[in-house]
Here is the input.
Amino acid sequence: MAHARTDLMQGTLELLILKTLAREAMHGYGIVQRIHETAEDLLKVEDGSLYPALYRMEERGWVTSEWGLSENNRRAKFYKLTRAGRKQLEDECANWERISQAITRILQTA
Amino acid sequence: MKALLARLFKPYKRKEIELEVEEELRFHVEMLRREYIRQGMPPEEAKGATLKRFGDVEQIKYRCVQISRRSHPFMRALKSFLILVSIAGVSVRVLSADISVGRIGEMLIAVAVLSRLLLYVRGLSPSNFLSKNRNTFAADL
Here is the structure.
């Protein structure tokens, strides 16, 4: 049976990108593929929306980018988490935990 | 220090930024289309599915170019410089008792404010490529 795909909550795309990049440097296509695979296609992420988010994150100093060769030997831009990005990931994970606990409590009691 | 200077003086050209963004997005779109074809989709169907999943390519390209331009080290340095000029102008204007020296302060403030306004207005104008090369990706696929 096909599962319904859920729209991403505002601001969560950056959290997903930070988490995906925490393991290794990746190009944009790789990041989206990893998000789709990990979420088993339950999340509705429009591929293109990733790029303005990545550019904003680079502007804030959370990621850096450099051109390299992809797995099929094509030129691609790879993104890497910076120290500020790792700190942001920790903060956003903690924030997400708090929000999710609060919502769960409300759903259980209301 | 050398890397910092190289980054600061990296050519600040709109066309170069546009081409770089376009190359990055094109890589993604082509990888996605190949993946659909690999899964057994006919090429025309793969093209449609790719564009649907990616979203409005030209709009995304435009947004990326805008962000890239405003965050370019040269643009950041220029904005910081204008703030310094404006602070210097205010200081000269306030601290100087001599009217003719005070005028220099006023000029510095005017230069800083007008330059900042010019940068702002330039940022508002849509990039030419958006209308000229619309649907380039869709046509190339």
Notes: The interface with chain A takes residues 20-21, 23-25, 27-28, 31-32, 53-57, 60, 63-64, 67-68, 70-71 of chain B (CB under 8 Å). Helices of chain B lie at 2-8, 14-38, 43-54, 57-70, 73-95, 99-124, 128-132, 136-140. The longest helix of chain B spans residues 99-124. The two ends of chain B are 43 Å apart (CA to CA).
